[in-house]
């Protein structure tokens, strides 16, 4: 389990607040995030969505 502190140190340009969000996502098995902040694109196992696309919708 990655901590916010280690994520902050590993991903240059990622704010500590964003690192806390990612750590929380890892803890709760959340893979998708709606955000306009492209800093989340630095995290390989997080998918950032910008539109009203539902990633669980089979269409």
Automatic annotation (TrEMBL):
Species of provenance: Natrinema gari JCM 14663
Domain PIN residue range list: 4-45
InterPro entries, per database record: PIN-like_dom_sf (IPR029060), PIN_dom (IPR002716)
Superkingdom as given in the UniProt entry: Archaea
Protein name per the record: PilT protein domain protein
């Amino acid at each position: 389990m990655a901590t916010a502190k280690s994520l902050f140190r590993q991903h240059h340009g990622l704010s500590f607040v964003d690192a806390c969000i990612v750590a929380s996502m890892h803890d709760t098995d959340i893979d998708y995030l709606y955000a306009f902040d492209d800093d989340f694109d630095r995290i390989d196992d997080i998918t950032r969505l910008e539109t009203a696309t539902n990633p669980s919708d089979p269409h």
